[in-house]
């Protein structure tokens, strides 16, 4: 049920949806579609927003869109935030400028149905007819479901099931179970797409799209009960190689606290449904920098040497242990910069897209794209300053300068 209470300028608009009262804020000369113009019982908040907006007079479209955005995000107790997985945070959602919301919606509208009302424009490198918002939503659902599996069915004591590159590079039974779930869901919903996962065999496809999966990013944290690990799901067009693919959509779901970042190519980045933007540090010296370390002794020794050259030049260093989360934190400004050598495609696929869509620059060193040799993320121009510092330190050749 939808009721507009009051019609005078600057009156509070109250909306009742399925018997839940949502306070939307002040309306200014606003006309809202009558209740019988919209089916509010059979769709989610975003779909309801679209229905209300299309039923609203064209000359009040921008105001209607503003109400729709609030409708989709205001079903919460006063002062609390609601995460994408349905859990309620005690912390209020940060305010996001309306202009940023409007820019995001304009990008989505232009992509869904071209600016002239025709078909959505094709993305470079993507097969015709690809809807990146649909892919974003699927990535989100997949990551949330796998995250729920990890959260709810993990044993009290997690043990190592196997190791990969070294004895300190573990795999757990839950890594495998999470990836098996993701693979099964993708096979059911997108049977023609390829799959590249950390724990299983590659699955070929015919659609030109590949799903890149990290069932638990931050396995060591998961093993020890340290609260920084995530499910990362991305879909890319082209070869399953970060240097050559076009990332289309992705989601990183932090399993412990429920934070969920999503991004779509050209559609911006979000955390829990709200747009995010990279920070704007004044200089490298005032930047908080995230990093990570490899598993081989030679690489770690070299990375330690590089760190001694980076640390005196920045505000401080953080090592959280989950690359996908690190990249998303750059995307929302919680980290100013991030660098790491040795990332695999599944480590960076979704997180790098979040960071890029949030306004960060993500590259390698010496003009190379981000990849195994090096990944450096952050806003310009300080990202370039860090790139030059790492190049001077030989950060992409640490194994060649250090031996056991």
Query: Taking strands numbered 1, 2, ... along the chain, how are they ordered across the largest sheet?
Result: 7-8-9-10-11-12-13
Any idea what the radius of gyration is?
A: 22 Å
CATH superfamily of the largest domain, please?
Fructose-1,6-Bisphosphatase, subunit A, domain 1
Low-confidence stretches: 1-104, 106-120
Helical run tally: 11
> Architecture of the largest domain, according to CATH?
2-Layer Sandwich
Mean pLDDT: 77
The sequence of SSEs as H and E is EEHHEEHHEEHEEHEEEEEEHEHEHEEHH
Indicate the structural class.
Answer: alpha+beta
Oligomer: single chain
Cofactor: Mg(2+)
Pfam family, one: Inositol_P
Protein name: inositol-phosphate phosphatase
EC number: 3.1.3.25
Structure keywords:
404 residues; alpha+beta; Fructose-1,6-Bisphosphatase, Chain A, domain 1; D-Maltodextrin-Binding Protein, domain 2; 7-stranded mixed β-sheet; 5-stranded mixed β-sheet; 18 strands; disordered N terminus; IMPase; hydrolase; metal-binding; magnesium
Provide a compact summary of the structure.
With 404 residues, the protein is of the alpha+beta class.
Folded structure, characterized:
This protein is an alpha+beta fold and 404 residues long. It folds into three domains: 75 residues, no CATH class; 144 residues, Fructose-1,6-Bisphosphatase, Chain A, domain 1 (2-Layer Sandwich), CATH 3.30.540; 118 residues, D-Maltodextrin-Binding Protein, domain 2 (3-Layer(aba) Sandwich), CATH 3.40.190.80. It contains eleven helices and 18 strands. Strands 7-8-9-10-11-12-13 form a seven-stranded mixed β-sheet, sandwiched between helices. It has a five-stranded mixed β-sheet with strand order 15-14-16-18-17, sandwiched between helices. Helix 1 packs antiparallel against helix 2. It starts with 10 loop residues before the first strand and ends with a helix. InterPro entries: IMPase, Inositol_monoP_metal-BS, Inositol_monophosphatase-like, Inositol_monophosphatase_CS. It is an enzyme of class 3 (hydrolase). Belongs to the inositol monophosphatase superfamily. Its cofactor is Mg(2+).
């Amino acid at each position: 049920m939808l009721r507009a209470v009051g019609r005078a300028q600057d009156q509070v608009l109250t909306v009742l949806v399925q018997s839940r009262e949502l306070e939307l804020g002040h309306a200014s000369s606003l006309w809202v579609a009558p209740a019988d113009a919209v089916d509010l019982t059979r769709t989610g908040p975003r779909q309801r927003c679209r229905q209300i907006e299309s039923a609203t007079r064209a000359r009040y479209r921008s105001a209607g869109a503003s109400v729709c955005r609030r409708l989709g995000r205001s079903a919460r107790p006063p002062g609390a935030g609601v995460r994408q997985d349905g859990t309620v945070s005690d912390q209020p959602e940060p305010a996001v400028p309306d202009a940023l919301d409007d820019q995001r919606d304009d990008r989505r509208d232009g992509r869904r149905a071209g600016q002239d009302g025709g078909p959505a424009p094709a993305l470079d490198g993507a097969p015709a007819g690809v809807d990146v918002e649909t892919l974003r939503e699927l990535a989100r659902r997949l990551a949330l479901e796998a995250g729920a599996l990890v959260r709810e069915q993990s044993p009290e004591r997690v043990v190592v099931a196997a190791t990969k590159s070294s004895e300190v590079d573990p795999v757990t039974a839950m890594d495998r179970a999470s990836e098996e779930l993701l693979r099964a869901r993708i096979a059911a919903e997108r049977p023609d797409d390829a799959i590249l996962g950390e724990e299983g065999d590659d699955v070929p496809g015919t659609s030109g799209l590949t799903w890149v999966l990290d069932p638990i990013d931050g396995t060591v944290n998961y093993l020890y009960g340290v609260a920084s690990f995530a499910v990362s799901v991305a879909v890319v067009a082209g070869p399953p190689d970060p240097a050559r693919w076009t990332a289309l959509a992705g989601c990183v779901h932090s399993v412990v606290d429920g934070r969920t970042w999503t991004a779509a190519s050209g559609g911006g980045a979000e955390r829990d449904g709200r747009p995010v933007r990279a920070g704007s540090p004044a200089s490298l010296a005032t930047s908080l920098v995230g990093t990570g370390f490899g598993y081989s002794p030679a690489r770690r020794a070299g990375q330690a040497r590089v760190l001694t050259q980076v640390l005196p030049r920045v505000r401080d260093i953080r090592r959280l242990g989950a690359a996908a989360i690190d990249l998303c934190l750059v995307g929302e400004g919680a980290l100013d910069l991030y660098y790491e050598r040795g990332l695999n495609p599944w480590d960076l696929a979704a997180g790098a897209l979040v960071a890029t869509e949030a306004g960060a620059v993500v590259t390698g060193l010496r003009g190379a794209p981000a990849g195994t040799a090096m990944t450096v993320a952050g806003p310009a121009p300080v990202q370039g300053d860090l790139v030059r510092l790492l190049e001077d330190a030989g950060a992409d050749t640490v194994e060649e300068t250090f031996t056991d």
